[in-house]
Amino acid sequence: MIKIQELYDLDHTLAKDYLNQFEYPWQALKGIKDFILQTGPSLSDEYEQIKENVWVHKSATVFESAYLGAPCIIGANTEVRHGAFIRGSALIGDNCVVGNSVELKNVILFDCVQTPHYNYVGDSILGYKSHMGAGSITSNVKSDKTLVVVHDGEMNYETGLKKFGAMLGDYVEVGCNSVLNPGTVIGVHSNVYPVSCVRGVVPDHSIVKSGGNIVKKI
Question: Is the distance from CB of 92 to CB of 72 less than 8 angstroms?
């Protein structure tokens, strides 16, 4: 359950056609910036280009203290709150929340994603209605700076990427103050307990409990 078609309902993102080019979601990370630059000028007149290569839907709410780095797209009815720091290369869908002191960089947030409090999300893709609890982060670089490998049981997937945070499937819930280590992939409808340290592949419809114990939902 680590392929794009298994993790995501692509009808909930502007990146549908872009993501359909790939088998695994991390393969899309390198091209997010170029995709946004190509997509922005073709958006409907419901979007405003508020500065060079930054497009914001007219129904979105962006607090004055938020920073929107180029390139980025902010979708309909999305709220970018006080002190949010969007570093750039961020495609943020409709009805999302980017909260206080949240930092985003090189990401795709599907529709209805919530990153509401003190989150760092970098080099990651967050699926439809996924939610990052307060203080939870994606760690996107290994401490030894080697290339990230996705570990799925006895299978290892060489990504060729130095920077790769996490792939969250649709409806994933990440508990407060959890750390998703480089190369984490979490299947649809899975939950992570608060203050967890997660690595590798978490199957769909699972719960990550204390100590990294993973159980299937009943």
Answer: yes
Of 151, 150, 118, 146, give the one whose Cα is nearest residue 132: 118
How confident is the model at residue 210, as a pLDDT?
82
What pLDDT is attached to residue 212? 82
Ranges of each domain in the chain: 4-216
Both structure tokens of 126: 């967050």
Strands (E), 19-175: 47-51, 54-57, 61-62, 67-68, 72-74, 79-80, 85-92, 97-100, 103-109, 114-117, 120-126, 131-132, 137-138, 148-152, 155-161, 166-168, 173-174
CATH fold of the domain at 4-216: UDP N-Acetylglucosamine Acyltransferase; domain 1 (2.160.10)
pTM (2 decimals)? Answer: 0.97
Q: What is the Cα–Cα distance from 72 to 173, expressed in whole angstroms?
A: 25
- Identify the three-state secondary structure at position 115: strand
d(CA 51, CA 153): 46
Identify whether the C-beta of residue 97 lies closer than 8 Å to the C-beta of residue 114.
Answer: yes
Write out pLDDT tens, residues 177-186: 999 999 999 9
